[in-house]
Amino acid sequence: MLTVIQKDKxxxxxxxxxxxxxxxxALFTYLVLIALFQESxxxxxxxxxxxSLTGIFLAALGHPRTVNWLWRKIPALNWxxxxxxxxxxxxxxxxxxxxxxxxxxCIEGRDEQTNAAQDxxxxxxxxxxxxxxxxxxxxxxxxxPDTQEASRSESFVVAAALESRRRDGCFWFHYVYEGRxxxxxxxxxxxxxxxxxxxxxxxxxxxxxxxxxxxxxxWREGINTAGKAxxxxxxxxxAAG
Length: 241
What we know:
Blueprint: E1 5-6, H1 9-41, H2 43-62, H3 64-73, H4 77-80, E2 87-95, H5 97-107, E3 124-134, E4 139-145, E5 154-165, E6 170-180, E7 192-201, E8 208-215, E9 226-233
Parallel strand pairs: 1-5
Antiparallel strand pairs: 2-3, 2-9, 3-4, 4-5, 5-6, 6-7, 7-8, 8-9
């Protein structure tokens, strides 16, 4: 959650309050340990114990389960700080691969009767399930396609951030992912690639995201793909493991 990119002053107030809370907790544990164990532990041991307890507290506070609980208790955090994206989403992508393949076939003479400019609005639609685990200190996501057909890819998010844009009053979910293709069937395909996406989250509909994505899949052949992406929540905000 601290990966959020905010333009509003309110986020700095919230983050400052969290920092003060962490500092207060560290001071509290330090004083308690001094009162209880100073004579038997010594100053160094008390300080180490305070740091350890603070680390445990921060780990618990930053867990997705804690975010779920806190955001359910204070729903306004979805607009004040960042939306709670924990849960499962249906991901639908519409890529330009069918257009790329048609042009490739024409160039290589496999489809001489077809005009490369024909059906340029034709897009290849693929669906799958994206599971998001969002904590206070990071975002994880894993995608699986609905069908395990050849050349379908599984992907893992390697970097992500939430952005609040004042100019359009919406949040944006940006992420970079690594795709893995267990069974590439096209000679120009590869068994792994990278991609990225930027999805808009309307403030009045936090369960729906839409935007665009692009990849470097088969970029050496000049046929890397791009297209539209839509996310719709199919499982409620839940305690992610």
